[in-house]
Amino acid sequence: MARATTFKFTFWKLVFLLLMACGVYATFIRFTQGLGASTHLNDQFPWGIWISFDVLCGVMLAAGGFTLTAAVHILNVKRLHSIIRPTILTAFLGYILVCAALMYDLGKPYNIWHPLIMRNPHSVMFEVAYCVMLYTTVLALEFSPIVLERFNLQKPLKVVRTILIPLVIFGVILSTLHQSSLGTLYLIVPEKLYPLWYTPLLPVFFFLSAIAVGLAMTIFESSLSSKHFGLQLELPVLRELGRVLVVVLGVYAILRFEDLANRGVLKLALHPGYEMYLFWLEISLALILPLALLLQPKVRSSANGLYLAAVLVVLGFITNRMNVSITGFEGSTGVRYFPKWTELAVTGMIIAAGFALFGLAVKYLPIFPKEETVQERLAVPVNLESAVSPMLEHAGD
Amino acid sequence: MSKALLYDSTVCIGCKQCEQACAAQNKLPYDDAIASEEIQSDHKMTVLLTRGDKFMRRLCMNCKDPSCASVCPVGALQKTALGPVTYDPSKCMGCRYCMVACPFSVPKYEWGKLVPKVQKCTMCPDRVSQGKQTACAEICPTGATKFGEYNDLVAEAQQRIHDNPGKYVDHIYGLDEVGGTSVLLLSAVPFETFGYRTNLSKDPMPMLTYRVLSHIPDFVPLGGMVLGGIWWITHRREEVALAEGRTTDEKKNGRKE
């Protein structure tokens, strides 16, 4: 068993090192020769995979953070408490990696701080910039108790716990704004974006799908973690998430098709062509297949069934973001965009870094419930009287 | 007060002196090879298109309510009262949202440079603020590109269409498009011939995003209050349960609240 684990890790380490090596070389090209030499971007296609995948999908994949903190801290759903730490870790890493990707994509990355002093509140990008900055800070604070516990720093820990609820509320508001604003970005291009994807409801769809992906990512990473770190799977908790996921996907599906019908573009979904195929790929992966799986009680209660459905939802909405930001523009610009190897290498490196950092954090920090409860009970006295007590976070233990 | 350009393609002889003057004004290279390029790019801000014996200019329309200025997070792009839409490269961080948003796909990027800028016609703001014409209008030998007061030029364009029935397409391009632009075009053949979008809304595009953005100041306190309220209720329930000596029902809690 131990030997098997060692071998496995060596294989993944090799993959990791390869991805990192390619990524570092691509980074070198990007910052010594510029965007033209390192990407397939051009005047017709100014936004490519670094925006579509690294930023749009990156932010979406981090949505578990606000979904779960809202469920646990605001709605007081205690059963979900055991998986909140890995979810916050994922969200925090996600946002750090989004910031890293932005440094590649911006033409002048050293000016990234400009929105702090040069403000244009009419710009969605300005809203996005502030959401990224503020929510990354909030996530860092939400994540900080894990680090503070590890080093047993009681004083700052107390401070963070005192402000936890306002912090969570602020984080949920910022996330709502940020997730939806990435859809709002595209509201200004009705004549360029293909009608299957352009809709005044884009912000609503981006937000709703972020909740779905947040739930799916939580199921996905819990399943994966239980396999790789030999932890017990919190199956009842995941079943709970699966049930909510069905509802969110159902609402999204109804709204999406109602919107297509209302705008009179439903026929485009049956109009054979490049856009139609990618539209149905997206709809099948994100809605049809997961709903078909999750609506069967037998599948919904099995670990493998949930895992499969979650992976499909994540892939489906990644396809959705790619369609909105790439496929939907190819018709009007008359240009096909496919990323250059350097763009893929940077994205690959960023994904690899995400997995590696997650692994390191799990190894060295109290992320999963076992260590957490033990340290908790040793460290902080239980206070049942005050509702504002920082212990709320652990009331369910 | 606001200045504008009127380009009448029926008067144009296709000499491309406007291209050359523009390049000189903006300190960009210009030679025969560049003259034959028919697309706007980081080194060519205005283009003279030739289709048979018909000509058409492409340049920044300098919209009255420009998408590019509205989407720029740092305000590097600005609409000036005189008409020009200006660009300040020192503010720009290179997000390229202006390029995505522009309904005329005008802003171009210096992809080959390590410190890249957005490049677009800015309607010669330095010259215009000194009371001079734009470089392209000044050089034009036939008066096809005419610089003047916006209202005067609109009236003149309408007059030309009225006085010459059948000569023009009955449309002043830029009068209504995206809420109006500071560049007005007249043509004898449909504007689509030269790649101009004719499906554009008559309303300024920035409204599309601003309608959503303007709700944020209300949304933040409201969201805070609703979330805070929910938090208070769920935790008050728990407190009461504890005080009454009941244990909170885990399962019910997990599902209902």
Strand segment tally of chain A: 0
Q: Quaternary status of these chains?
A: heterodimer
Largest interface: A-B, 68 and 66 residues
- Mind describing the biggest β-sheet of chain A? none
User: Biggest β-sheet of chain B: count, sense, barrel?
Assistant: 3 strands, mixed
- What is the CATH topology of the largest domain in chain B? Alpha-Beta Plaits
Give the beta-strand count of chain B: 9
How does CATH name the architecture of chain A?
Answer: Up-down Bundle
Mean pLDDT over all positions of chain A: 88
Measured as a percent range, the helix fraction of chain B is 25-40%
Known CATH architecture of the largest domain in chain B:
2-Layer Sandwich
Distance between the termini of chain A: 31 Å
> What best-fitting shape of chain A do the alpha-carbon axes yield?
globular
Which H/E pattern describes the elements of chain A?
HHHHHHHHHHHHHHH
Instruction: Enumerate the spans of chain A where pLDDT stays under 50 for 5 or more consecutive residues.
Output: 1-5, 371-397
Looking at the structure, what is the overall shape of chain B? Answer: elongated
Helical content of chain A stands at: over 70%
What name does CATH use for the topology of chain A?
Answer: Formate dehydrogenase/DMSO reductase fold
Q: How much strand of chain B?
A: 5-15%
Task: Walk me through what this model shows.
The complex is a heterodimer of chains A (397) and B (257). By secondary structure, chain A is mainly alpha-helical. Chain A has a single domain (53-394), classed as Up-down Bundle (Formate dehydrogenase/DMSO reductase fold). Chain A is built from 15 helices and no strands. Chain A has helices at 2-33, 35-38, 49-61, 64-74, 84-105, 124-150, 154-162, 164-184, 202-228, 235-262, 274-294, 297-300, 303-333, 341-364, 369-379. In chain A, helix 4 (64-74) packs across helix 9. Chain A is globular and about 60 Å long. The two termini of chain A are 31 Å apart. The relative contact order of chain A is 0.15. Chain B has 257 residues and is of the alpha+beta class. Chain B has two domains: 3-206, Alpha-Beta Plaits; 215-256. Chain B is 35% helix and 14% strand. Chain B has ten helices and nine strands. Chain B has helices at 17-25, 32-35, 67-71, 97-101, 125-129, 135-139, 150-163, 206-213, 216-243, 250-256, and strands spanning 3-8, 47-51, 54-58, 77-79, 85-87, 108-109, 118-119, 145-149, 183-186. A three-stranded mixed β-sheet of chain B has the order 8-1-9. In chain B, strands 2-3 form a two-stranded antiparallel ribbon. A two-stranded antiparallel ribbon of chain B has the order 4-5. Chain B is elongated and about 95 Å long.
